[in-house]
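User: As part of a screening pipeline, I want to sanity-check one entry by hand. Below is the sequence and the SMILES for S-adenosylmethionine. Please return the complex as structure tokens so I can compare it with the automated output.
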Amino acid sequence: MTRPGGAAVPRVVHLPAADPPEGEPPGVARQGAPGADHPMRAVTEAVAADPSWWTPEQAARVAGFFDDLADGWDQRDGAGQGPGAVADALDRAGPCTGPVVELGAGTGAGTPVLVERIGPVLAVDLSAGMLAHLHVPGAQPVLADASRLPVATGSVGTLVCLNMLLFPDEVRRVLAPGGALVWVSSRGEHTPIHLSAEAVAEALGDGFEVTASRHGWSTWAVARRAD
Ligand SMILES: C[S@@+](CC[C@H](N)C(=O)[O-])C[C@H]1O[C@@H](n2cnc3c(N)ncnc32)[C@H](O)[C@@H]1O
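Assistant: Here is the complex for your manual check:
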């Protein structure tokens, strides 16, 4: 497959689903199916396709949005879904090594499993309100924008996005050869900040191998740098 302009799009290898879900995804009975219609979905698709869309004004707006949600974030619908999916991705998509940087770490829902399975984590978030709730031994909170990370080029073994925006240029810049992006949507297609594995592959472009699967209601993709 090629993108318009001739650049190759990585093929996605889909593994069988683990722990198939039952009933309705968390929150849907109460809220309808909000993922695709949520304002954050439009932001997610826009920045993945065109990083120049992300401006200081957008960053301030998104930081304010999550500052307002920070109290009670851990009690939202589906909050418990993400860590299991992160663990499943780490277990089934090949070795993920440090240094680990978690992007949009929020209050740290996915952080303990990263510390436990890989090692110390730089937990990056744009929202000071969310980071104020992140207290995970082994994780260092860092207030920063994932589109301009304070880390050296080619220095990161594993980048993790649990319900987080994708900044493809910055992923390509910071990942070491053989390094991996772990991309997880805790409520799958019902997650506001969600991209399919194919959309992640297309945004990253040539030079990655992508493995994907489902865990319960969650979807995940691991994009490993081939070069
Ligand atoms: C949907 S929340 C997910 C939080 C956590 N990963 C979880 O699953 O509970 C998205 C998080 O990404 C953060 N975020 C959004 N854009 C960001 C950016 N450009 N750089 C760093 N963090 C960002 C938000 O502040 C928010 O904490």
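Points to compare against the pipeline: The first helix runs from residue 28 to 31. Strands lie at 12-14, 100-103, 121-125, 139-143, 156-162, 175-185, 208-215, 218-225.
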